[in-house]
TrEMBL record:
Membrane topology, as annotated: Multi-pass membrane protein
Name by which UniProt lists this protein: Anoctamin
Organism taxonomic ancestry: Eukaryota, Metazoa, Chordata, Craniata, Vertebrata
Family annotation (InterPro entries): Anoctamin, Anoctamin_TM
Family under the similarity heading: Belongs to the anoctamin family.
Keyword line: Membrane, Transmembrane, Transmembrane helix
Chain ranges passing through the membrane: 132-154, 166-183, 237-263
Annotated coiled-coil segments of the chain: none
Residue ranges of every copy of the Anoctamin transmembrane domain listed in the record: 121-308
Key word Transmembrane present: yes
Length: 311
């Protein structure tokens, strides 16, 4: 019954190496090609079994004339959602498996300075929960770098305003680089987990129509033999080098100069003791307004560059 349910929902399972390996939607007709198919206790994880059972519950359909107390169902109407809508069923949830839960309690909750058992979390709670804790662990580990660097800067920063401003600029630049590397590394790590846990499906872009902004000449694809729009890669590279790169550098330079100018203005304002206290916050307010305005302008520039790059 579980195998039939897995076939109906298209559950992705690992394939034996001799049959090509990788992940594939389960099929009862070819059940022999999947790993651990011989062992009914280990073929499905706890989360997979619960998914199949939930699928069955949500797809229980009423027969003609079927009724429960004073609730009369239409033929083919889903029973569980109707009962939930009428308040007969308050909630549907699986019970915990105490044996697995105790094992996770020892290897995960009570463990100190040990890697998270992400595969066991995935097997028990599902991919979404496992992916969340994978990201949380990766983020926590990545935060060590700005924490250490920030502590070193704080230790060696002198008490004068100029030294503090320079350290703020250095730390801001470090954070920009760190956040970029963090996101790119997580994309790789997330894709690795998605492939490992069978959720890395064929990208939607492969079956979508080309972007409306795309321009080019029609040709017959040498790969698929289908008609497609073609734009020479050397033209796109030329646009990136002569337009995209200079525009991005100009935008970054402008923001950097504005930031330095606001720091200089801040130092000048603080040097005048007679000014009201509220005036001392003026450079920071100006910087915030400029950054917000630049964000909107740069977004439009990014859209324009992206559209032009598709030509």
């Amino acid at each position: 019954s579980l195998l039939r349910g897995a076939d109906e929902i298209g559950l992705r399972k690992p394939v034996k190496a001799e049959f090509g390996g990788g992940m594939r939607s389960f099929s009862c007709e070819e059940d022999y090609i999947y790993e651990n198919i011989e062992n009914e206790l280990y073929f499905f994880t706890s989360q997979e079994r619960q998914n199949i059972i939930r699928y069955w519950l949500e797809n229980l359909r009423a027969k003609q004339g079927e009724a429960l107390h004073n609730i009369h169902f239409l033929e083919g109407q889903p029973i569980i959602p109707e009962l939930a809508a009428r308040g007969v069923i308050q909630q549907v949830f699986p019970l915990h498996e105490q044996r697995i839960l105790k094992r996770l309690m020892k290897s995960w909750v009570q463990a100190i300075c040990e890697a998270q058992p992400l595969d066991e979390i995935c097997d028990y709670f599902g991919v979404k929960i496992a992916m969340y804790f994978a990201w949380l662990g990766f983020y926590t580990s990545a935060m060590v770098y700005p924490a250490v660097f920030g502590s070193i800067l704080y230790t060696f920063t002198e008490s004068d305003q100029t030294s503090q401003d320079i350290c703020c600029v250095v730390f801001a630049i470090f954070n920009v680089i760190w956040s970029t590397l963090f996101l790119e590394e997580w994309k790789r790590r997330g894709a690795e987990f998605a492939y490992k846990w069978g959720t890395l499906d064929t990208p939607a872009e492969s079956i979508e129509e080309p972007r409306p902004q795309f321009r080019g000449v029609k040709r017959i694809s040498p790969v698929t033999s289908a008609e497609e729009f073609y734009y020479p890669p050397w033209k796109r590279l030329l646009f990136q080098c002569l337009v995209s790169l200079p525009v991005c550098l100009a935008c970054l330079s402008f923001v950097f100069l504005i930031m330095l100018g606001c720091f200089q203005l801040q130092e000048f304002v603080l040097s005048i003791k007679e000014l009201p206290r509220i005036i001392r916050f003026l450079p920071k307010i100006v910087l915030a307004v400029i950054v917000t305005t630049c964000d909107e302008v740069y977004k439009k520039i990014a859209y324009w560059l992206n559209d032009m790059g598709a030509w």
